[in-house]
Design a protein that fits this description.
With about 400 residues, this protein is mainly alpha-helical. The chain has helices at about 40-50, 70-85, 90-100, 105-120, 125-130, 135-150, 150-205, 215-250, 250-265, 270-290, 295-305, 310-320, 325-335, 340-350, 355-410, and strands spanning about 15-25, 30-35, 55-60. The protein has a three-stranded antiparallel sheet with strand order 2-1-3. Helix 6 runs antiparallel to helix 7, helix 12 runs antiparallel to helix 13 (about 325-335) and helix 14 (about 340-350) packs antiparallel against helix 15.
Length: about 400
């Protein structure tokens, strides 16, 4: 998003800011908008050249913009593709989408890109200034569309690609959310019982004057530990989770280890592998169909797969393909793709329909992910119920055993 340029820019480069402006056009109509510039004077000069009489200019704060998500970029891509197909001029399409965005951050981002295009930058060059939102694959496809004069068609293909990838990620997140949420709730309930409920039973048991059963003694000892160390327990758990995810995002060795481990995890591992293959084949199909050479397309495919194992394998495949090896043989040598994928790629290479075959493979594995997630959700429900029943039920039985003994004695 546009704001003051970040530290580390080249010496002598002017810091730029977002300015909101109001004024009247040549017909006396009130107009307003936003512009990125080095100062108010530059804004006034630019608008004056456009025949706009400026009445107000105000520098915008970066904090006013919301966070731009992948879903926002996907929606923008679809809207832009639809408008260009309908014959709406590019700059007008940006203005319409930017004004209609509910997220102010998206509006600012699109206004910045629009200003860059207005000043002579190509669309893909404007996108490349914001690598956090537009990756190399996005920019390469837009560039290919501009060169071939089929920007609307490639944006439509790109929107479909991003929607498919977003759907896969959403499916996996939904599969993980339910069991994680239940386990968190179970831990909180157990902690409340340990800290507040069991000490009350402990005071009651003292009046019995009899020996307590072993399960009850164990639960009471566990409760005493919780009461004495609850701060360290909660702090340690939250600190461990925060440190884990912090280093997972920022440490390359950690990412490599986790990516390899995720592929080997029982039950979840096959789902992650299928989702990765679906992204890999979908990306390569989209790039190849856009006319991007195979070796160049493989540059974007590895990173888009979202797994380091497949990223490294893609580099090896790219190296073999660049020396004349067929894609089928190179993928077979990588030893990470199922035989069905390799056979489909071989048919695609022989028939000259590699992009279509890759798209079919992606559709197949996306359907497999959907089925696996649905099956996993059905499987997790009874397992979680058994775990919760055993945990909570065990605590309740342990607390009521002494009461049952007293009742029998009476």
């Amino acid at each position: 998003m546009a704001t003051a340029t970040k530290s580390g820019k080249k010496a002598g480069q002017i810091n730029e800011f977002i300015f909101a402006w109001e004024g009247k056009d040549k017909n006396g109509k009130l107009v307003r908008g936003e512009m990125r510039a080095g100062g108010k004077t530059m804004v006034q000069a630019t608008l004056r050249r456009q025949g706009i009489l400026v009445s107000k200019i105000k520098k915008q704060s970066f904090a006013q913009g919301g966070r731009v998500t992948e879903k926002d970029i996907t929606l923008f891509t679809r809207q832009l593709a639809t408008m260009l197909k309908a014959g709406v001029p590019l700059l007008q399409a940006f203005e319409i989408v930017g004004k209609g965005a509910s997220n102010r951050g998206v509006g600012k981002l699109l206004n910045d890109i629009k200003n860059d295009v207005e000043t002579g930058s190509s669309l893909n060059q404007a996108f490349r200034k914001y690598p956090l939102h537009f990756d190399a694959l996005f920019c390469n496809l837009v560039g290919a569309g501009e060169q071939a004069g089929i920007l609307d068609a490639l944006l439509d293909r790109l929107a479909t690609y991003k929607e498919k990838i977003l759907a896969i990620k959403s499916k996996i997140k939904s599969a993980l959310f339910y069991p994680v949420a239940i386990l968190v709730v179970a831990f909180v309930i157990t902690a409340i019982i340990m800290i507040f409920v069991i000490p009350a039973f402990k005071n009651v048991f003292k009046s019995f004057g009899a020996d307590l059963p072993a399960p009850t003694l164990f639960v009471i000892a566990l409760s005493d530990f919780f009461v004495a160390n609850w701060f360290f327990i909660f702090g340690g758990i939250f600190g461990a989770f925060y440190a884990f995810f912090y280093f997972w995002k920022r440490s390359l060795p950690m990412q490599i280890v986790m990516d390899r481990a995720l592929l080997r995890v029982p039950v979840f591992g096959p789902i992650v592998r299928k989702a990765t293959i679906a992204r890999w084949t979908r990306t390569l199909s989209t790039m190849f169909a856009a006319g991007v050479p195979l070796v160049e397309a493989l540059d974007s495919v590895g990173g888009a797969a979202g797994n380091h194992v497949y990223k490294v394998a893609t580099k090896l495949i790219q190296g073999e393909v660049s020396t004349g090896t067929s894609l089928t043989v190179a993928m077979q040598n990588a030893n990470i793709f199922p035989s069905m994928v390799i056979q489909m790629v071989a048919i695609g290479e022989e028939s000259g329909q590699l992009d279509a075959m890759l798209a079919k493979v992606s559709d197949f594995f996306e359907a497999e992910v959907d089925d696996a997630v649905d099956g996993l959700s059905s499987l997790m429900e009874p397992i979680i119920m058994v775990i919760l029943g055993t945990l909570i039920g065990g605590l309740v039985v342990a607390m009521y055993l002494p009461i049952f003994k007293v009742a029998q004695a009476v």
